[in-house]
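Worked example 4.2. Below are the chains of a multi-component assembly; read each line carefully before continuing.
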Amino acid sequence: MSDVDALYQDIILDHNRRPRNHHPMEGEARQAAGRNPLCGDEVTVWLRLDGDRIAEASFVGRGCAISRAAASLMTTAVEGKTREEAEALFDRFHDVVTGKVPQTEARTLGTPIAVFSGVARFPIRVKCASLPWHAMRAALRAEVAPVTTDR
Amino acid sequence: MSARADFPLLAADESLHYLDSAATAQKPRVVLDAMTGYYETANANPHRGAYRISERSTAIYHDSRARIAAFFGIDDSARLVLTRGTTESINLVAGAWGRANVGAGDEIVITGMEHHANFIPWQQLAIERGARLRICELTADGRLDLDCLRGLLTARTRVVAFNHVSNALGTINPAREIASLVRERCDALIVCDGAQGAPHLAVDVDALGVDFYAFSGHKMCGPMGLGGLIGRRSLLEAMPPYQFGGDMIDLVDDELSTWNVLPHKFEAGTPNVAGAVGLSAACDYLEGIGMAEVRRHELALTSEAHARLSEIPGLTIFGPGPDERSGVISFTLADVHPHDLATILDGRGVCIRAGHHCAQPLMRRLGVVATARASFYIYNDAADLEALIAGIAESKELFGSRQPAYGR
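Applying the procedure described above to all two chains together yields the following C-alpha coordinates:
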Protein backbone atom coordinates (compact mmCIF):
# COMPACT_ATOMS: atom_id res chain seq x y z
CA MET A 1 0.00 0.00 0.00
CA SER A 2 1.40 3.41 -0.93
CA ASP A 3 1.73 6.15 1.70
CA VAL A 4 -1.19 8.00 0.13
CA ASP A 5 -3.42 4.90 0.16
CA ALA A 6 -2.45 4.25 3.78
CA LEU A 7 -3.45 7.82 4.60
CA TYR A 8 -6.79 7.86 2.84
CA GLN A 9 -8.24 4.56 3.99
CA ASP A 10 -11.84 3.79 3.03
CA ILE A 11 -13.09 4.44 6.54
CA ILE A 12 -11.57 7.93 6.45
CA LEU A 13 -13.05 8.63 3.02
CA ASP A 14 -16.43 7.43 4.23
CA HIS A 15 -16.41 9.57 7.38
CA ASN A 16 -15.33 12.53 5.26
CA ARG A 17 -18.30 12.04 2.95
CA ARG A 18 -20.81 11.14 5.64
CA PRO A 19 -19.54 12.51 8.96
CA ARG A 20 -21.26 11.10 12.06
CA ASN A 21 -22.51 13.33 14.91
CA HIS A 22 -22.11 16.32 12.61
CA HIS A 23 -24.35 18.92 14.25
CA PRO A 24 -24.26 21.56 16.96
CA MET A 25 -25.60 20.49 20.35
CA GLU A 26 -28.41 22.29 22.10
CA GLY A 27 -28.86 22.68 25.83
CA GLU A 28 -26.47 21.66 28.57
CA ALA A 29 -23.27 20.91 26.71
CA ARG A 30 -19.66 21.96 26.89
CA GLN A 31 -18.10 23.21 23.73
CA ALA A 32 -14.66 24.18 22.47
CA ALA A 33 -13.47 25.54 19.16
CA GLY A 34 -10.20 24.69 17.48
CA ARG A 35 -8.44 26.39 14.61
CA ASN A 36 -5.43 25.49 12.54
CA PRO A 37 -3.75 28.77 11.55
CA LEU A 38 -1.69 27.03 8.90
CA CYS A 39 -4.64 26.06 6.71
CA GLY A 40 -7.62 27.87 8.23
CA ASP A 41 -9.38 24.66 9.27
CA GLU A 42 -11.92 25.18 12.03
CA VAL A 43 -13.81 22.76 14.24
CA THR A 44 -16.18 23.12 17.16
CA VAL A 45 -16.75 20.14 19.41
CA TRP A 46 -19.67 19.68 21.84
CA LEU A 47 -19.73 17.24 24.73
CA ARG A 48 -22.70 16.40 26.95
CA LEU A 49 -21.51 14.93 30.21
CA ASP A 50 -23.51 12.61 32.39
CA GLY A 51 -21.61 12.74 35.65
CA ASP A 52 -18.10 11.69 34.81
CA ARG A 53 -19.08 10.09 31.52
CA ILE A 54 -19.40 11.58 28.00
CA ALA A 55 -23.01 10.86 27.11
CA GLU A 56 -22.89 12.49 23.71
CA ALA A 57 -20.33 14.13 21.41
CA SER A 58 -20.78 16.13 18.23
CA PHE A 59 -18.89 18.50 15.98
CA VAL A 60 -19.24 21.11 13.26
CA GLY A 61 -16.39 22.43 11.19
CA ARG A 62 -14.74 22.98 7.88
CA GLY A 63 -11.53 21.35 6.89
CA CYS A 64 -9.81 18.69 4.89
CA ALA A 65 -10.82 15.05 4.69
CA ILE A 66 -8.36 14.10 7.40
CA SER A 67 -9.62 16.64 9.93
CA ARG A 68 -13.28 15.95 9.11
CA ALA A 69 -12.91 12.19 9.39
CA ALA A 70 -10.82 12.55 12.55
CA ALA A 71 -13.58 14.68 14.09
CA SER A 72 -16.30 12.25 13.08
CA LEU A 73 -14.41 9.20 14.34
CA MET A 74 -13.37 11.03 17.51
CA THR A 75 -17.02 11.61 18.43
CA THR A 76 -17.77 7.92 17.98
CA ALA A 77 -14.69 7.00 20.03
CA VAL A 78 -15.34 9.15 23.10
CA GLU A 79 -19.06 8.59 23.49
CA GLY A 80 -19.67 6.52 26.61
CA LYS A 81 -16.13 7.05 27.90
CA THR A 82 -15.20 8.56 31.24
CA ARG A 83 -13.14 11.73 31.33
CA GLU A 84 -10.10 9.71 32.25
CA GLU A 85 -10.67 7.27 29.39
CA ALA A 86 -11.18 10.11 26.92
CA GLU A 87 -7.94 11.77 28.06
CA ALA A 88 -6.15 8.45 27.58
CA LEU A 89 -7.61 8.13 24.07
CA PHE A 90 -6.33 11.61 23.27
CA ASP A 91 -2.83 10.58 24.32
CA ARG A 92 -2.98 7.36 22.32
CA PHE A 93 -4.26 9.17 19.23
CA HIS A 94 -1.50 11.73 19.53
CA ASP A 95 1.14 9.02 19.83
CA VAL A 96 -0.23 7.23 16.75
CA VAL A 97 -0.34 10.26 14.44
CA THR A 98 3.09 11.45 15.53
CA GLY A 99 4.57 8.03 14.83
CA LYS A 100 5.40 7.15 18.43
CA VAL A 101 3.47 3.88 18.15
CA PRO A 102 4.61 1.28 15.59
CA GLN A 103 2.06 0.60 12.82
CA THR A 104 1.57 -2.99 13.99
CA GLU A 105 0.70 -1.85 17.49
CA ALA A 106 -1.47 1.03 16.24
CA ARG A 107 -3.77 -1.50 14.57
CA THR A 108 -4.78 -2.86 17.98
CA LEU A 109 -6.00 0.50 19.29
CA GLY A 110 -9.47 0.46 17.78
CA THR A 111 -10.65 1.75 14.42
CA PRO A 112 -11.16 5.47 15.20
CA ILE A 113 -7.50 5.70 16.17
CA ALA A 114 -5.89 2.92 14.17
CA VAL A 115 -7.00 4.22 10.74
CA PHE A 116 -4.94 7.37 11.32
CA SER A 117 -1.61 5.59 11.64
CA GLY A 118 -0.82 6.59 8.04
CA VAL A 119 -0.78 10.26 9.07
CA ALA A 120 2.60 9.80 10.74
CA ARG A 121 4.21 9.65 7.29
CA PHE A 122 2.83 13.13 6.49
CA PRO A 123 4.16 15.47 9.20
CA ILE A 124 2.32 18.48 7.78
CA ARG A 125 -1.02 16.65 8.17
CA VAL A 126 -0.59 15.74 11.85
CA LYS A 127 -2.26 18.99 12.84
CA CYS A 128 -5.24 18.24 10.59
CA ALA A 129 -5.86 14.94 12.36
CA SER A 130 -5.24 16.16 15.89
CA LEU A 131 -7.26 19.41 15.71
CA PRO A 132 -10.64 17.86 16.66
CA TRP A 133 -9.01 15.83 19.43
CA HIS A 134 -7.47 19.01 20.85
CA ALA A 135 -10.91 20.65 20.74
CA MET A 136 -12.46 17.61 22.46
CA ARG A 137 -9.91 17.75 25.25
CA ALA A 138 -10.40 21.50 25.64
CA ALA A 139 -14.16 20.99 25.95
CA LEU A 140 -13.57 18.22 28.46
CA ARG A 141 -11.33 20.44 30.54
CA ALA A 142 -13.73 23.34 29.93
CA GLU A 143 -11.03 25.65 28.68
CA VAL A 144 -12.74 28.80 27.55
CA ALA A 145 -10.31 30.22 24.98
CA PRO A 146 -10.25 28.72 21.47
CA VAL A 147 -7.51 26.13 21.06
CA THR A 148 -5.03 25.98 18.23
CA THR A 149 -2.85 23.08 17.21
CA ASP A 150 0.19 25.25 17.81
CA ARG A 151 -0.03 24.76 21.55
CA MET B 1 12.83 25.91 -24.17
CA SER B 2 14.35 23.03 -22.22
CA ALA B 3 15.59 24.83 -19.12
CA ARG B 4 14.93 21.81 -16.91
CA ALA B 5 18.37 20.36 -17.56
CA ASP B 6 19.95 23.50 -16.07
CA PHE B 7 18.42 22.77 -12.65
CA PRO B 8 20.19 19.98 -10.73
CA LEU B 9 17.28 19.23 -8.42
CA LEU B 10 14.89 18.78 -11.35
CA ALA B 11 17.39 17.04 -13.60
CA ALA B 12 18.04 14.46 -10.87
CA ASP B 13 14.43 13.29 -10.78
CA GLU B 14 12.40 13.08 -13.96
CA SER B 15 9.28 12.12 -12.03
CA LEU B 16 9.28 15.38 -10.03
CA HIS B 17 6.76 17.97 -11.21
CA TYR B 18 7.59 21.18 -9.38
CA LEU B 19 4.63 23.55 -9.63
CA ASP B 20 5.35 25.81 -6.65
CA SER B 21 7.70 28.41 -8.09
CA ALA B 22 5.52 31.20 -6.75
CA ALA B 23 6.73 30.03 -3.33
CA THR B 24 10.34 29.62 -4.38
CA ALA B 25 12.05 28.88 -7.68
CA GLN B 26 14.54 26.09 -8.22
CA LYS B 27 18.18 27.10 -8.68
CA PRO B 28 20.18 26.58 -11.86
CA ARG B 29 23.66 25.07 -11.70
CA VAL B 30 25.25 28.43 -12.64
CA VAL B 31 23.85 30.05 -9.51
CA LEU B 32 25.03 27.25 -7.23
CA ASP B 33 28.47 27.26 -8.87
CA ALA B 34 28.82 31.02 -8.54
CA MET B 35 28.09 30.87 -4.82
CA THR B 36 30.42 27.94 -4.21
CA GLY B 37 33.06 29.74 -6.27
CA TYR B 38 32.81 32.80 -4.08
CA TYR B 39 33.23 30.81 -0.89
CA GLU B 40 36.10 28.81 -2.36
CA THR B 41 38.09 31.75 -3.72
CA ALA B 42 37.12 35.06 -2.11
CA ASN B 43 35.33 34.54 1.19
CA ALA B 44 36.15 37.35 3.60
CA ASN B 45 34.21 40.04 5.36
CA PRO B 46 33.88 42.93 2.89
CA HIS B 47 34.49 46.61 3.70
CA ARG B 48 36.68 45.71 6.67
CA GLY B 49 39.84 43.78 6.06
CA ALA B 50 43.00 45.48 4.77
CA TYR B 51 44.02 42.36 2.93
CA ARG B 52 43.57 41.11 -0.55
CA ILE B 53 40.72 38.61 -0.27
CA SER B 54 38.69 41.13 1.74
CA GLU B 55 39.24 43.67 -1.02
CA ARG B 56 38.23 41.01 -3.50
CA SER B 57 35.09 40.22 -1.52
CA THR B 58 34.25 43.94 -1.39
CA ALA B 59 34.66 44.28 -5.16
CA ILE B 60 32.56 41.17 -5.80
CA TYR B 61 29.79 42.48 -3.54
CA HIS B 62 29.86 45.84 -5.29
CA ASP B 63 29.81 44.28 -8.76
CA SER B 64 26.97 41.93 -7.80
CA ARG B 65 24.90 44.86 -6.60
CA ALA B 66 25.51 46.71 -9.87
CA ARG B 67 24.55 43.61 -11.86
CA ILE B 68 21.31 43.12 -9.93
CA ALA B 69 20.44 46.83 -10.19
CA ALA B 70 20.97 46.69 -13.95
CA PHE B 71 18.43 43.85 -14.16
CA PHE B 72 15.87 46.38 -12.95
CA GLY B 73 17.08 49.14 -15.31
CA ILE B 74 18.96 50.98 -12.56
CA ASP B 75 22.39 52.57 -13.30
CA ASP B 76 22.93 54.12 -9.87
CA SER B 77 23.46 50.94 -7.87
CA ALA B 78 23.48 52.85 -4.56
CA ARG B 79 19.70 52.98 -5.02
CA LEU B 80 19.55 49.21 -4.48
CA VAL B 81 19.55 48.21 -0.81
CA LEU B 82 20.20 44.50 -0.46
CA THR B 83 17.94 42.91 2.12
CA ARG B 84 16.81 39.44 3.14
CA GLY B 85 13.95 39.70 0.68
CA THR B 86 10.65 41.40 -0.09
CA THR B 87 9.36 41.11 3.47
CA GLU B 88 12.35 42.93 4.93
CA SER B 89 12.29 45.49 2.11
CA ILE B 90 8.69 46.47 2.77
CA ASN B 91 9.23 46.52 6.51
CA LEU B 92 12.18 48.82 5.86
CA VAL B 93 10.02 51.31 3.96
CA ALA B 94 7.12 51.12 6.42
CA GLY B 95 9.49 51.36 9.38
CA ALA B 96 11.92 54.03 8.20
CA TRP B 97 9.89 56.16 5.79
CA GLY B 98 6.52 55.43 7.34
CA ARG B 99 7.37 56.30 10.91
CA ALA B 100 8.98 59.56 9.82
CA ASN B 101 6.26 60.63 7.41
CA VAL B 102 2.88 59.17 8.34
CA GLY B 103 0.88 60.85 11.08
CA ALA B 104 -2.54 60.96 12.65
CA GLY B 105 -5.33 61.46 10.14
CA ASP B 106 -3.21 60.36 7.18
CA GLU B 107 -4.36 57.51 4.99
CA ILE B 108 -2.53 54.47 3.69
CA VAL B 109 -4.01 52.71 0.67
CA ILE B 110 -3.32 49.03 0.06
CA THR B 111 -5.29 46.40 -1.85
CA GLY B 112 -7.39 43.37 -1.05
CA MET B 113 -4.99 41.08 -2.89
CA GLU B 114 -1.83 41.74 -0.92
CA HIS B 115 0.47 39.13 0.55
CA HIS B 116 0.66 39.54 4.33
CA ALA B 117 4.15 41.03 3.81
CA ASN B 118 2.62 44.03 2.03
CA PHE B 119 -0.43 44.17 4.27
CA ILE B 120 0.57 43.86 7.90
CA PRO B 121 3.48 46.39 7.88
CA TRP B 122 1.01 49.05 6.68
CA GLN B 123 -1.78 47.93 8.96
CA GLN B 124 0.54 48.11 11.96
CA LEU B 125 2.00 51.45 10.85
CA ALA B 126 -1.53 52.84 10.61
CA ILE B 127 -2.32 51.61 14.12
CA GLU B 128 0.90 53.03 15.50
CA ARG B 129 0.58 56.43 13.85
CA GLY B 130 -3.17 56.86 14.18
CA ALA B 131 -3.51 56.75 10.41
CA ARG B 132 -6.32 55.09 8.50
CA LEU B 133 -5.81 51.98 6.38
CA ARG B 134 -7.92 51.92 3.24
CA ILE B 135 -8.27 48.90 1.03
CA CYS B 136 -8.78 48.91 -2.73
CA GLU B 137 -11.26 46.15 -3.57
CA LEU B 138 -11.14 43.71 -6.49
CA THR B 139 -13.30 43.12 -9.51
CA ALA B 140 -15.21 39.85 -9.78
CA ASP B 141 -12.48 38.39 -11.98
CA GLY B 142 -9.72 39.16 -9.47
CA ARG B 143 -8.25 42.39 -10.85
CA LEU B 144 -7.81 45.62 -8.93
CA ASP B 145 -10.90 47.80 -9.17
CA LEU B 146 -9.28 51.01 -10.41
CA ASP B 147 -12.49 52.97 -9.89
CA CYS B 148 -12.36 51.96 -6.26
CA LEU B 149 -8.72 53.05 -6.15
CA ARG B 150 -9.56 56.46 -7.66
CA GLY B 151 -12.18 56.93 -4.98
CA LEU B 152 -9.66 56.20 -2.22
CA LEU B 153 -7.00 58.66 -3.35
CA THR B 154 -7.31 61.99 -1.57
CA ALA B 155 -5.10 64.76 -0.21
CA ARG B 156 -4.79 62.67 2.96
CA THR B 157 -3.27 59.66 1.15
CA ARG B 158 0.37 59.30 2.22
CA VAL B 159 1.19 55.82 0.91
CA VAL B 160 -0.15 53.59 -1.84
CA ALA B 161 1.20 50.04 -1.70
CA PHE B 162 0.24 47.27 -4.14
CA ASN B 163 1.73 44.16 -5.65
CA HIS B 164 3.02 44.03 -9.21
CA VAL B 165 1.71 40.49 -9.53
CA SER B 166 -0.56 38.74 -7.02
CA ASN B 167 1.00 35.66 -5.45
CA ALA B 168 -2.36 34.03 -4.85
CA LEU B 169 -4.23 34.94 -8.05
CA GLY B 170 -1.43 35.56 -10.53
CA THR B 171 -3.08 38.83 -11.57
CA ILE B 172 -0.61 41.18 -13.28
CA ASN B 173 -1.49 44.63 -12.01
CA PRO B 174 -1.06 47.65 -14.32
CA ALA B 175 1.71 49.14 -12.17
CA ARG B 176 2.50 52.03 -14.49
CA GLU B 177 -1.18 53.00 -14.84
CA ILE B 178 -1.65 52.80 -11.07
CA ALA B 179 1.42 54.94 -10.46
CA SER B 180 0.21 57.68 -12.82
CA LEU B 181 -3.27 57.49 -11.32
CA VAL B 182 -1.77 58.14 -7.90
CA ARG B 183 0.50 60.97 -9.12
CA GLU B 184 -2.46 62.75 -10.75
CA ARG B 185 -4.43 62.73 -7.54
CA CYS B 186 -2.10 63.00 -4.57
CA ASP B 187 1.41 63.30 -3.25
CA ALA B 188 1.68 59.77 -1.90
CA LEU B 189 4.60 57.40 -1.67
CA ILE B 190 4.14 54.55 -4.18
CA VAL B 191 5.43 51.17 -3.03
CA CYS B 192 5.32 48.17 -5.34
CA ASP B 193 5.74 44.61 -4.03
CA GLY B 194 7.61 43.00 -6.90
CA ALA B 195 8.13 39.56 -5.34
CA GLN B 196 6.03 37.93 -8.06
CA GLY B 197 6.79 40.50 -10.76
CA ALA B 198 10.57 40.41 -10.96
CA PRO B 199 10.85 36.66 -11.71
CA HIS B 200 8.39 36.76 -14.60
CA LEU B 201 8.36 40.16 -16.27
CA ALA B 202 10.96 42.55 -17.63
CA VAL B 203 10.96 45.25 -14.95
CA ASP B 204 12.25 48.77 -15.51
CA VAL B 205 11.56 50.26 -12.10
CA ASP B 206 11.86 53.91 -13.13
CA ALA B 207 9.61 53.38 -16.15
CA LEU B 208 6.94 51.98 -13.82
CA GLY B 209 7.01 55.31 -11.99
CA VAL B 210 6.97 53.84 -8.49
CA ASP B 211 9.01 55.18 -5.56
CA PHE B 212 10.01 51.81 -4.13
CA TYR B 213 10.17 48.36 -5.68
CA ALA B 214 10.78 45.35 -3.42
CA PHE B 215 11.80 41.88 -4.60
CA SER B 216 13.09 38.48 -3.46
CA GLY B 217 16.01 36.76 -5.13
CA HIS B 218 14.88 33.23 -4.34
CA LYS B 219 11.77 33.51 -6.51
CA MET B 220 13.91 34.47 -9.51
CA CYS B 221 16.34 31.52 -9.42
CA GLY B 222 18.61 33.14 -6.85
CA PRO B 223 19.36 31.91 -3.34
CA MET B 224 17.10 32.26 -0.32
CA GLY B 225 17.88 35.11 2.06
CA LEU B 226 18.82 37.77 -0.46
CA GLY B 227 16.49 40.29 -2.02
CA GLY B 228 16.34 43.98 -2.45
CA LEU B 229 14.69 47.33 -2.25
CA ILE B 230 15.09 49.84 -5.06
CA GLY B 231 14.20 53.38 -4.16
CA ARG B 232 14.49 56.95 -5.34
CA ARG B 233 17.83 58.36 -4.20
CA SER B 234 16.30 61.48 -2.63
CA LEU B 235 13.88 59.39 -0.57
CA LEU B 236 16.54 56.94 0.60
CA GLU B 237 18.87 59.78 1.54
CA ALA B 238 16.20 61.51 3.61
CA MET B 239 15.16 58.34 5.42
CA PRO B 240 16.57 57.47 8.84
CA PRO B 241 18.37 54.13 9.21
CA TYR B 242 16.28 51.04 9.76
CA GLN B 243 18.74 48.92 11.75
CA PHE B 244 21.89 49.89 13.59
CA GLY B 245 25.22 48.13 13.75
CA GLY B 246 28.40 47.62 11.84
CA ASP B 247 28.93 48.91 8.30
CA MET B 248 26.08 51.42 8.40
CA ILE B 249 27.89 54.13 10.36
CA ASP B 250 30.12 57.05 9.55
CA LEU B 251 31.27 58.12 13.04
CA VAL B 252 30.20 56.77 16.41
CA ASP B 253 30.66 59.14 19.33
CA ASP B 254 29.63 58.38 22.88
CA GLU B 255 26.58 60.61 22.50
CA LEU B 256 25.82 60.58 18.79
CA SER B 257 26.43 58.66 15.58
CA THR B 258 26.35 59.62 11.94
CA TRP B 259 25.48 57.36 9.04
CA ASN B 260 27.30 55.87 6.12
CA VAL B 261 26.32 56.76 2.56
CA LEU B 262 23.79 54.85 0.46
CA PRO B 263 23.23 51.97 0.25
CA HIS B 264 25.28 51.03 3.33
CA LYS B 265 23.16 53.16 5.64
CA PHE B 266 20.49 50.48 5.31
CA GLU B 267 22.76 47.44 5.42
CA ALA B 268 23.78 46.98 9.05
CA GLY B 269 25.93 43.94 9.79
CA THR B 270 27.94 41.61 7.60
CA PRO B 271 26.24 41.46 4.22
CA ASN B 272 25.16 38.31 2.40
CA VAL B 273 27.88 38.47 -0.25
CA ALA B 274 27.40 34.90 -1.47
CA GLY B 275 23.69 35.61 -1.81
CA ALA B 276 24.39 38.69 -3.91
CA VAL B 277 26.78 36.66 -6.05
CA GLY B 278 24.09 34.01 -6.52
CA LEU B 279 21.40 36.51 -7.44
CA SER B 280 23.76 38.26 -9.80
CA ALA B 281 24.32 34.90 -11.55
CA ALA B 282 20.55 34.36 -11.59
CA CYS B 283 20.10 37.73 -13.33
CA ASP B 284 22.65 36.65 -15.94
CA TYR B 285 20.83 33.35 -16.34
CA LEU B 286 17.38 34.92 -16.76
CA GLU B 287 18.63 37.56 -19.18
CA GLY B 288 20.44 34.84 -21.09
CA ILE B 289 17.04 33.30 -21.73
CA GLY B 290 15.48 36.74 -22.11
CA MET B 291 12.61 37.98 -19.97
CA ALA B 292 10.40 38.21 -23.06
CA GLU B 293 11.01 34.52 -23.68
CA VAL B 294 10.35 33.73 -19.99
CA ARG B 295 7.00 35.48 -20.31
CA ARG B 296 6.21 33.81 -23.65
CA HIS B 297 6.92 30.36 -22.24
CA GLU B 298 4.83 30.95 -19.12
CA LEU B 299 1.96 32.47 -21.06
CA ALA B 300 1.80 29.47 -23.42
CA LEU B 301 1.86 26.95 -20.57
CA THR B 302 -0.51 28.94 -18.35
CA SER B 303 -2.99 29.44 -21.21
CA GLU B 304 -2.99 25.70 -21.87
CA ALA B 305 -3.36 24.95 -18.15
CA HIS B 306 -6.18 27.50 -17.83
CA ALA B 307 -8.05 25.96 -20.75
CA ARG B 308 -7.58 22.37 -19.59
CA LEU B 309 -8.43 23.03 -15.93
CA SER B 310 -11.51 25.05 -16.94
CA GLU B 311 -12.92 21.91 -18.56
CA ILE B 312 -12.87 19.94 -15.30
CA PRO B 313 -16.35 19.84 -13.71
CA GLY B 314 -16.39 21.21 -10.18
CA LEU B 315 -13.12 23.10 -10.63
CA THR B 316 -13.20 26.86 -10.04
CA ILE B 317 -10.29 29.06 -11.14
CA PHE B 318 -9.82 32.39 -9.39
CA GLY B 319 -8.42 35.45 -11.12
CA PRO B 320 -8.40 36.87 -14.64
CA GLY B 321 -7.76 35.24 -18.01
CA PRO B 322 -4.26 34.04 -18.98
CA ASP B 323 -3.30 37.31 -20.72
CA GLU B 324 -3.59 39.23 -17.47
CA ARG B 325 -1.96 36.68 -15.19
CA SER B 326 1.52 35.35 -14.64
CA GLY B 327 2.22 31.63 -14.33
CA VAL B 328 -0.08 31.16 -11.34
CA ILE B 329 -3.37 29.28 -11.30
CA SER B 330 -5.29 29.27 -8.05
CA PHE B 331 -8.33 27.01 -7.87
CA THR B 332 -10.69 24.99 -5.75
CA LEU B 333 -12.22 21.61 -6.51
CA ALA B 334 -15.71 20.69 -5.31
CA ASP B 335 -15.67 17.98 -2.61
CA VAL B 336 -11.86 18.03 -2.39
CA HIS B 337 -10.10 20.18 0.18
CA PRO B 338 -6.93 21.83 -1.21
CA HIS B 339 -4.78 20.06 1.39
CA ASP B 340 -6.09 16.66 0.41
CA LEU B 341 -5.51 17.52 -3.24
CA ALA B 342 -1.94 18.57 -2.47
CA THR B 343 -1.30 15.27 -0.68
CA ILE B 344 -2.71 13.18 -3.54
CA LEU B 345 -0.64 15.18 -6.03
CA ASP B 346 2.45 14.75 -3.86
CA GLY B 347 1.95 11.00 -4.18
CA ARG B 348 2.40 11.52 -7.93
CA GLY B 349 5.46 13.73 -7.55
CA VAL B 350 3.47 16.91 -8.21
CA CYS B 351 4.31 19.80 -5.86
CA ILE B 352 1.60 22.42 -5.49
CA ARG B 353 0.75 24.83 -2.71
CA ALA B 354 -2.47 24.54 -0.71
CA GLY B 355 -3.64 27.06 1.84
CA HIS B 356 -4.26 30.76 2.20
CA HIS B 357 -0.98 31.72 0.48
CA CYS B 358 -0.24 34.32 3.17
CA ALA B 359 -3.21 36.27 1.83
CA GLN B 360 -6.01 35.78 4.34
CA PRO B 361 -7.68 39.11 3.49
CA LEU B 362 -7.88 37.92 -0.13
CA MET B 363 -9.24 34.50 0.85
CA ARG B 364 -12.05 36.22 2.76
CA ARG B 365 -12.85 38.31 -0.28
CA LEU B 366 -12.96 35.18 -2.45
CA GLY B 367 -15.16 33.49 0.15
CA VAL B 368 -12.84 30.52 0.61
CA VAL B 369 -10.61 29.27 3.42
CA ALA B 370 -7.92 28.00 1.12
CA THR B 371 -7.14 27.35 -2.52
CA ALA B 372 -4.85 25.01 -4.39
CA ARG B 373 -2.20 26.87 -6.37
CA ALA B 374 -0.12 25.59 -9.26
CA SER B 375 2.58 27.95 -10.49
CA PHE B 376 4.68 27.57 -13.62
CA TYR B 377 8.16 28.78 -14.43
CA ILE B 378 10.81 28.44 -17.11
CA TYR B 379 11.59 24.79 -16.36
CA ASN B 380 8.00 23.55 -16.48
CA ASP B 381 6.54 21.85 -19.50
CA ALA B 382 3.52 19.94 -20.81
CA ALA B 383 4.47 16.83 -18.82
CA ASP B 384 4.09 18.79 -15.57
CA LEU B 385 0.65 19.95 -16.64
CA GLU B 386 -0.41 16.40 -17.59
CA ALA B 387 0.72 15.12 -14.19
CA LEU B 388 -1.29 17.87 -12.49
CA ILE B 389 -4.41 17.02 -14.45
CA ALA B 390 -4.05 13.28 -13.81
CA GLY B 391 -3.68 13.94 -10.08
CA ILE B 392 -6.79 16.13 -10.05
CA ALA B 393 -8.74 13.35 -11.77
CA GLU B 394 -7.51 10.83 -9.18
CA SER B 395 -8.54 13.15 -6.34
CA LYS B 396 -12.01 13.61 -7.78
CA GLU B 397 -12.34 9.85 -8.02
CA LEU B 398 -11.13 9.30 -4.45
CA PHE B 399 -13.12 12.02 -2.71
CA GLY B 400 -16.12 12.15 -5.02
CA SER B 401 -19.58 10.79 -4.27
CA ARG B 402 -18.62 7.20 -5.21
CA GLN B 403 -19.36 4.98 -2.21
CA PRO B 404 -16.38 3.10 -0.85
CA ALA B 405 -16.33 -0.70 -0.84
CA TYR B 406 -16.66 -0.73 2.92
CA GLY B 407 -20.11 0.34 4.06
CA ARG B 408 -22.06 1.17 7.12
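Take a moment to check your reading of the output against the notes. The mean pLDDT of chain A is 90. Chain A touches chain B at residues 2-4, 7-8, 10-11, 13-14, 16-17, 38-42, 62-66, 122, 125, 128 (CB under 8 Å).
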